[in-house]
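pasting for ref
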Amino acid sequence: MQEQINHFLDTLDLSKNTLDAYRYGLQRFVSIVGEGAPLNAETFETFLSEIKDYSPSTKQIWRSAVLGLYTFCKSGDLAEIQGIIRHYSRRQPKRIVNFNREAVEQVIEYCSRLSGDLPALRDRAFVLTLADTGLRISEACALKRGDIDWLEARAIIIGKGDKQAVIRFSERAIQSLREYHVACASIEPNTRMPLKSQPVFCRHDIRASKKIKPISASGMWTAIKGDPKQGIKGRIEEAGVDRSLVRVHDFRHYFVTITYLAKRDIKLSQELARHSSIDTTNRYTHFGGEADVAYDEIFNKRK
């Protein structure tokens, strides 16, 4: 199936971010249904059922990627698949954001203390970047060194929907990136790749050898989340947290929550999170709201 996926992706004329999202979605498809699974309606429904709790935007792009693969491979079940898609695509109201903040903060704290080899320095910089910028995992993996204005601690990226956006980096994120890149100088000291074109986050696996290669979203997902099937323990488990309690996207949830709690300014949080609709940002306003204050005064601060 991997060969079919590669051929399919090679035919697409999409932005790099979208192509990375497609590739990651197809890798998740294979991990869910199995490498040898037939491309039929039953397999497609199994995949949709497994990802039903993901965000609508994630489900949509992964579904499009898999449907494109089915079409490319001339699956005979497309009519039945369209019916399955309609069933699983029934519009649901936007749900209140709910994530385990304590678990996320435990992972951030653990990763902030990582040191030693290149994977450790990379993963520290990556987690701090996600937590303090609100970048999506695919956006972070697409960063080039030349994208970052190191003096101003910001970057201009092409994000979701091919929209330009300004990303701001915290001091700890910038410092961790600098330390990681100093260590990266030993990978390929005589490379002809211009420094500005080099990826911010690189692969450090055996197959990458001593070459400077960007790491994919799925590669970083595995580094942080782990892969029990391959016996790979991720940073989440190393931090003493059950891997089921933290999703990689929760670092973005954490970022939006922290910005809202700090200023109580929904428009500012919308801008920093790069949400196209304020309805999306409103899903975070239940954190520390007036109802919480009132409840605390009634039940916890009575004389």
